[in-house]
Amino acid sequence: MTAKSQKNWTGDPSELLRVGEGFRLADVDPSSTPGYEGGKKDGQEDLDDGAAELDELQERLYAESRTEASNAAVLLVLQAMDSAGKGGILRHVVGSVDPQGITLTAFKKPTKAELSHDFLWRIEKRVPQPGYIGVFDRSQYEDVLIARVRGLAEPAEIERRYGAINDFEKKLSDTGTRVLKVMLHISSDEQRDRLMRRLDRPDKHWKFNPGDTDERLLWPKYMDAYQVAFERTSTPWAPWYVVPANHKWYTRLAVQALLLETLERVDPQWPAATYDVEAEKARLAAS
Amino acid sequence: MTAKSQKNWTGDPSELLRVGEGFRLADVDPSSTPGYEGGKKDGQEDLDDGAAELDELQERLYAESRTEASNAAVLLVLQAMDSAGKGGILRHVVGSVDPQGITLTAFKKPTKAELSHDFLWRIEKRVPQPGYIGVFDRSQYEDVLIARVRGLAEPAEIERRYGAINDFEKKLSDTGTRVLKVMLHISSDEQRDRLMRRLDRPDKHWKFNPGDTDERLLWPKYMDAYQVAFERTSTPWAPWYVVPANHKWYTRLAVQALLLETLERVDPQWPAATYDVEAEKARLAAS
């Protein structure tokens, strides 16, 4: 199923980008644009059309949740190497939705208080309520990605976490929250170019951290950690999607398409009035 | 001072709309457009230009806060009678800023847990961190507005709250948070028309609550409660602004202008690099 509003797809992104049996991250070309026959300009037009549809779908989701007939919510989990475009997704895809319908959480390095609890403690507090699109900018997956690469936890603990994440996401799914997990995939060369542009522009210097270059040296280890995470946690109830991210316009369009597809499956409807409309019109007119 | 990006102001909205000595809410015409000589179309163009400026100013504010040289934040407090346009401000003014830079809180009827604490307990937890624009959709003022009109607290307690609010806002202001308090002011007739349109459209029925008509009967009491709140809490460090709200385009433009003016006074700058830029370029190129 492709979104109604995005015209130029020739294939279904929710099929083409999904991590299934035998998936290998190394086989994904970060410069590819799977399933989309248009170019950058078409992509921008489709993104604009999709924004209006996404905004309405979210409002319907919220309206339906107010009648207590629905527990439906959406949780978008974003993971990526630095500079892959999470910020652009937040600004241009999430940012096109009414902010009243979004709960956004950026998970940073855990605080001392957070480290004193199980790794899911801070995550569970931020899951979206019915009617909302929750967005995680980084997530529970940091605890099996950087934690694995940097040895921040014992191997046995990291093994335990894959299962704990699956149980957690199953419970979310069973109680009405659609879990959409997206990894934005850039190439190492593209990352170097993007970081270099930050160094070239004084108004972007604050975005650069010398530690970013150190992390690049661990690139193959991160790719391995992602591969393992995909194998262990891409489930029927919460599949992973890998979106090629060397072309920003495609990344945004594809993530929007995945959100639209998720909401169209929920298919939220404007709820009927729970009061007598004509009687209320008369009462209001007299007030 | 008027915003650089909004061309058609003939007066300064931060002067014209501010609640000062001798202010009387009853003298404000909700259909007026103080200080703006353009019409709806000019207003829309100015709003688009202002959106780009507001987005950049917020990003600068955030960037500057990362260097720890600045504690500056902005808190926008929105209060209004139902249907006056708070939602439109959130969608069209706040929604034009990168969602990563906004923390939005909608304060509903207090829960049991919230009622067991002082009225400011839930408020203090949601003040913006440095670098952010915090937005309160309703606020601490409900505790002196609906609380006064509906007698939800003893008169002595309500008296105490005006002072407590002033102390709280002074502390915020002293620690770098600019407090911008805005009341959107519609007429009772305009509200009736807007509520009637909700009853006329099946996709808006969920937004109507029969209780809205009951609240209308208390209109004069609410206006009195606002008048008292203005007199008691419009301070040099956190003045109130009353924005005529019968014309939605003006309301949005004026609130954007007040935000722009607030941020232009902060005048946040892109921070200088805290590392050796040329050395980092070389290290990155080799990575």
Summarize it.
Chain A has 287 residues and is of the alpha/beta class. The first copy, chain A, is built from 12 helices and 5 strands.
Mind explaining what this structure looks like?
The structure is a homodimer of 287-residue chains. Chain A is an alpha/beta fold. Chain A is built from 12 helices and 5 strands. Chain A has a 5-stranded parallel β-sheet, sandwiched between helices. In chain A, α2 packs parallel to α11. Chain A binds chain B through residues 63, 66-67, 87, 90-91, 94-95, 98-100, 102, 104, 106, 137, 192, 195-196, 199, 202-203, 205-208, 210, 213, 216-217, 270-273, 275, 277, 280-281, 283-285, 287, and chain B through 63, 66-67, 87, 90-91, 94-95, 98-100, 102, 104, 106, 137, 192, 195-196, 199, 202-203, 205-208, 210, 213, 216-217, 270-273, 275, 277, 280-281, 283-285, 287.
- Which class do the helix and strand fractions of chain A yield? alpha/beta
> What is the helix tally of chain A?
12
Low-confidence stretches of chain A: none
The best one-word shape of chain A is: globular
How would you state the average pLDDT of chain A, rounded?
A: 96
The CA-CA distance between the termini of chain A, in Å, is 48 Å
Give the strand order of the largest sheet of chain A, numbering strands 1, 2, ... along the chain: 2-3-1-4-5
Oligomer: homodimer
**Major sheet of chain A:** 5 strands, parallel
Assess the beta-strand content of chain A as a share of residues: 5-15%
Give me the CATH architecture of chain A, please. 3-Layer(aba) Sandwich
Give the total of beta strands of chain A. Answer: 5
H-E order of chain A? HHEHEHHEHHEHHHEHH
Taking all Cα atoms into account, the compactness measure Rg of chain A is: 20 Å
Number of domains of chain A: 1
Instruction: Briefly note the CATH topology name of chain A.
Output: Rossmann fold
The most extensive interface, with participating residues per chain, is: A-B, 41 and 41 residues
Per CATH, the class of chain A reads Alpha Beta
The CATH homologous superfamily name of chain A equals P-loop containing nucleotide triphosphate hydrolases
Which bin fits the share of residues in helices of chain A?
A: 40-55%
InterPro entries (chains A, B): P-loop_NTPase (IPR027417), PPK2-rel_1 (IPR022300), PPK2-related (IPR022488)
Protein name (chains A, B): PPK2 family polyphosphate kinase
Domain Polyphosphate kinase-2-related (chains A, B): 40-267
Keywords (chains A, B): Kinase, Transferase
